[in-house]
Specification:
By secondary structure, this protein is an alpha/beta fold. The protein is built from 13 helices and eleven strands. GO terms for molecular function: ATP binding; ATP hydrolysis activity.
């Protein structure tokens, strides 16, 4: 089966101040998302995952590389982008910031229909989207304002605003990060139900590997502008190969191993280190394991290839598949 969305050789750089090298926010990424598939894009803040997601939405034009949707390259002409954004919708982290406090729920959900000039009965479409998002009976919410809703209800309104256009793919950026723990499970269950009932695909951007375990079919772990490990959720989270993935998993409450405390902060994306970009913080290198395997020099000096975005792979000289 051909993927629904494909990113190939994606690079995104931003100019730096005072003559510094440009920041390589996305530094070579291949990624596939299949029809009806949920992919979790995981990593620390600042690793480039939100910039990558915005590029897949057509909000940031890549410096090089391409995005393909439904077998056709993404065009950046205004008319083509408008049509594309009907098929690919964004769900943001903070529902309070996503909703205009002066608009009713009805107007918030109907906004996309009005922008795209959708035919058909608007009231029926809005009611159907709210019901699919779990707000029933939908008419009871039409005239409410965001401040009259709970956090979970506001996030459902945001999701309904995406669903009303009947997209094929949703990009959800930290969709439950601002919600109480009791509500997170409901929203994740909703996304899974939409996948099962509508065949909806989703890219879920998150720093939480526990969330990925509960919702994703596949996981892509990102560090300093590149995907460093990919695989099914069971493969990556049950037997992580990359030291960075191992460190992220070690701090989960249910982890069977002691927490791995990474030294320092992620490097500046305008000064990506040579060799493995994780080597300055790598516990495998620091422990002497890489040296015993005769690979310490390679870790520090030899770059790793871009992962192809599918199958099981890790960009690590010691434990991966270079």
């Amino acid at each position: 089966m051909k993927p629904l969305l494909t990113a190939s050789g994606l690079h995104i750089t931003f100019p730096a101040r005072r003559g510094a090298p440009p920041a390589r926010a996305v530094d070579g990424v291949d990624l596939d998302i299949g029809a009806g598939e949920i992919v979790a894009l995981v990593g620390e803040s600042g690793c480039g995952k939100t910039t990558l997601a915005r590029s897949l939405l057509g909000l940031v034009r890549p410096t090089s590389g391409s995005v393909t949707f439904g077998g056709a390259p993404l065009s950046y002409r205004s008319g083509a982008l408008k049509a594309y954004r009907r098929r690919v919708q964004l769900v943001l982290q903070d529902p309070s910031g996503s909703l205009n406090p002066r608009h009713t729920v009805y107007d918030a959900v109907a906004e996309g229909l009005r922008i795209h000039g959708s035919p058909g009965d608007e009231r029926t479409a809005v009611a159907s989207a709210l019901a699919r998002a779990g707000l029933r009976p939908p008419e009871r919410f039409f005239l409410r304002y965001p401040h009259e809703l709970s956090g979970g209800q506001r996030q459902r309104v945001v999701i309904a605003g995406a669903l009303v256009l009947e997209p094929e793919l949703i990009v959800a950026d930290e969709p439950v990060a601002s919600l109480d723990a009791s509500v997170r499970g409901e929203i994740l269950a909703l996304l899974l139900r939409l996948r099962d009932e509508l065949g909806l695909s989703a890219l879920v951007v998150t720093h939480d590997l526990g969330l990925a375990w509960n919702i994703a079919d596949r996981v892509a772990v990102m560090y300093l502008g590149r995907i460093v490990e990919t695989g099914t959720v069971e493969e990556v989270l049950s037997a992580p190969r990359h030291p960075y993935t191992q460190a992220l998993l070690s701090v989960l409450p249910e982890s069977p191993v002691p927490p791995v405390v990474l030294a320092g902060e992620p490097p500046d994306p305008s000064r990506v280190p040579p060799g493995c970009r994780f080597h300055a913080r790598c516990q495998v290198l620091a422990s002497g394991e890489a040296d015993r395997a005769g690979l310490a020099s390679a870790c520090r000096t030899r770059d790793l290839p871009v992962l192809d975005g599918r199958g099981r792979a890790a960009a690590c000289h010691v434990h991966g598949t270079p």
